[in-house]
Write a structure and sequence with these properties.
Helix content is about 80%, strand content about 0%. With about 375 residues, it is mainly alpha-helical. The longest helix is centred in the N-terminal third of the chain and has 18 residues.
Length: about 375
Amino acid sequence: IAAFDRVFATAALYLHLRGNFTEALTWAERALAANEANQYGHSPSRLLRIIGFVLIFTGNHEKARPLLEEAIASADADGDAFGAAQARHVLSLAEDDLGHFDEAIALNKAAIAGYHDTHNQTWTAYALNSLGHAEFEKGDVDQSVPHFEEALSIFYETGNTMGIGAALVNLAKVARTRGENANAARLYKESLALRWEHGNQLGMVGCIRGLGQILVSTRADRDAAELFGAADELRNAIGGRISPRRSGYNAAITILKQRLGEAAFTEAWDRGCRRPLNEVIAQALSEPSSPRSVAASPGHAGRTGLTMREVEVLRLVCDGRSNREIGEQLFVSERTAQTHVQHILTKLEVNTRAAAAARAVELHLV
């Protein structure tokens, strides 16, 4: 039975990551039924963590919470420090979604301590990102930023592009909250490009919505309504949850309906629903967010492997900016700026900032 449990749980996790939420929920429920039917009373913490994770991302918070609490108790009893940390981390996602931010913060801090004890750098970064998210949603924006930046730095150092996409979108939310629309758009676009590459469809929905909200603030109303329609069509197609926290999104929809009128809003929304996803993504990534950003992802940059963010940093290097100045310009820490620069040098196969600047000129990136 335990072997079948693992198969069910692994299938559910894979389908969730690929955005097949309805099917993932079916597999999670099969795994749960198999676990409950186990005559030996075995309650594997890993199985319960995965089931709880899928249940949270399909909106079944109340069903997930007791399973995750059981997973914590099981891991603690077995002396499984990593399992206990991960169970607390997953439970924090449910508490965050339900608006219990203090509980989510406490769970994430406990998870980070557990991950540190087991020397798991990757999951430490994910928990830091989750901690920052709970702080951001609570309203402690300035407190959340160092956690997002530390998570991003670890993801860059370990080459975890899934994690990079997750941290970038949170930094985009911070920038949007601060009214820094150009910076927010660049961050959303870089995250969207990564999520498109990974096939992370729920992540794409979040990025498209974020870009739509920026368009609302710049009064590109029809384009915004079209993006929102495309995002909602994708969410419905994959069976993704409707987040309990939609105040910013709902406010944007209300503004669009007022400014466009119901008929024009519906027409633009429906047009977005009908568009193929690849066209929606291409348009979202190509629309300029600042005068210099049109060339942010040219063919030359793609061949070097530079991300949009790294191209942005490279341009500042060409301007003679120090790591500290780059950090101040892009609202990241000096350490994060230094990490970006090192990755740029590696990808361009050069050893100095001057050589990187010269290479940028050769590649027509500046």
